[in-house]
Amino acid sequence: NLIGSCKRVESQLCPSAENETDFVLCVCSMGNLIKVLTRDIDNNAGNVFLDFENAQPSPSETDIWETVKQTLEEAQVVLNDLQAYRGAGEEIRQAIQSPADEEVQEKAWSAVVPLVAKLKTFYEFSQKLESSLRSLLDVLTRPGTTPTQQLEQKQALARQFAHILHFTLRFDELKMTNPAIQNDFSYYRRTISRMRINNLPSDSGGEVNNELANHMSLFYANATPMLKTLSNATSKFVSDNPDVPIENTTDCLSTMACVCKVMLETPEYRSRFTSEETVLFCLRVMVGVIILYDHVHPAGAFVKTSNIDMKGCIRVLREQAPSSVEGLLNALRYTTKHLNDETTSKQIRNMLQ
Questions:
Q1: Distance CA 269, CA 200 (A)
Q2: How far is C-alpha 240 from the geometric centre of its chain's CA atoms?
Q3: Residue 308 DSSP one-character state
Q4: CA distances from 256 to 85, 155, 202, 282 (A)
Q5: Fewest Cβ atoms closer than 10 Å to its Cβ: which of 87, 300, 346, 349?
Q6: Euclidean distance between CA atoms 15 and 10, whole angstroms
Q7: At a CB cut-off of 8 Å and minimum separation 6, what does 209 contact?
Q8: What b-and-e string marks burial along 91-105, b requiring 16 or more CB atoms within 10 Å of the CB?
Q9: What pTM was estimated for this model as a whole?
Q10: 208: which DSSP letter?
Q11: pLDDT in tens, 268-283
């Protein structure tokens, strides 16, 4: 029907088209029109409003909802602790300057030990978060219904999935702006190593063993450790479930990105948010699922055949106050996998500059 209705302008639009196939390819290249139209019709994601503020579980969802709820409650404690993390920079500086002063050394050690205990708690929580993510993916990617229907029918679980993404980006934003975290842990490892060489007791109570310390070092060395954890968990979920087509997972992610974009750019939907904080929440979720999609999908989120309207998503971000979205734009610039691929259009790259 589309071809027939365009026949009268075919010669003007695509003068080089020799047959209907050439004409379709020509139209697709001019804005990827057919892909966009059919995706919207098939998924119907533009007509879905996810209630991120009030969605409650059905009886069949209660067990998993309660389990994830406990993780999310702990997530808030982790964020509060991370936000309050000040580090032991001054004590460490004095200890380095006065290596022979036992009192100064003891003061630095006493300051660092409880901080490393906090860092250990953050790392261990990342493993709990990974478990919760996998539980939600297991439900949200089940075959039998479209991704849009899954999200619409299981709004409470979709809401929890969104909260995990929101926490993840918020944690990484705070971590990236706090260099004391890696400095404290590096000092701790150096001091522990020196104590072991000299056969001195650490008296730290909850000493981090060498294996755990190695895992923690890798975790905190990453610019966005929680996002890395979720990306790895999502990829592992796909590889561990070969009976579940990868499209079930990637379509779930791309549909949620589409729903968030539409809710943010549609006044009718956006007016349903009871606070501006929900707007920022929705923006973080949109960016989070884009990054996960980019790590899981073989071709990534930026290729022309992607199910995510990247130009539209970036445009929505650009329309917000710069101070509220710069961290999210940086997440797309520096934590995605395929942005710098040759298949990424120059326009998308320019939009992210």
A1: 63
A2: 20
A3: S
A4: 33, 11, 49, 10
A5: 346
A6: 7
A7: none
A8: bbeebeeeeeeeebb
A9: 0.81
A10: P
A11: 888 889 888 999 999 9
